[in-house]
Amino acid sequence: MRRDVFQAVADPTRRAIIGLIALQAMTPNAIAEHFQTSRQAVSKHIKVLTECDLLTQEQSGREIYYHFNPQKLKDIADFVEPFRKMWEERFGQLDQLLNTLK
């Protein structure tokens, strides 16, 4: 089952996992060391991130390393872009208004 990238980043633990793996590839045990939850709970989060292709896995000997796939965040960036532009325009208008009131 493929999951939606928005569903994956909705959870703060999954966002934290992305933040960790964005810096370097990590094994599930190395990831789990950063959280106060069980290894099984972290594995479930990793599964969701893998199902939506935010993480890819690479076998190296007996270890599995997870890598971050930043291309999948493009879906989010594309969705957010029109809103970012709208708010930049509104803040620009507010700046102009405040400058004229001075």
3D structure, described in words:
The protein is mainly alpha-helical and 102 residues long. It is 62% helix and 12% strand. The protein contains five helices and two strands, in the order ααααββα. The chain has helices spanning 5-9, 12-23, 28-32, 39-51, 74-101; strands at residues 55-60, 63-68. Strands 1-2 form a two-stranded antiparallel sheet. A hairpin with a 2-residue loop joins strand 1 and strand 2 (63-68). The longest helix is centred in the last third of the chain and has 28 residues, at 74-101. The chain is elongated.
Ends: how far apart?
Answer: 57 Å
Secondary structure tally, helices? 5
State the major sheet: 2 strands, antiparallel
Overall pLDDT? 92
Low-confidence stretches: none
Percent range of helical residues:
55-70%
Strand order of the largest sheet: 1-2
What gyration radius follows from the Cα positions, in whole Å? 19 Å
Features:
102 residues, two-stranded antiparallel sheet, 12% strand
Compact overview of the structure:
The protein is mainly α. Helices cover 62% and strands 12% of the residues. Strands 1-2 form a two-stranded antiparallel sheet.
What does the secondary structure layout of this molecule look like, with pairings?
Blueprint: H1 5-9, H2 12-23, H3 28-32, H4 39-51, E1 55-60, E2 63-68, H5 74-101
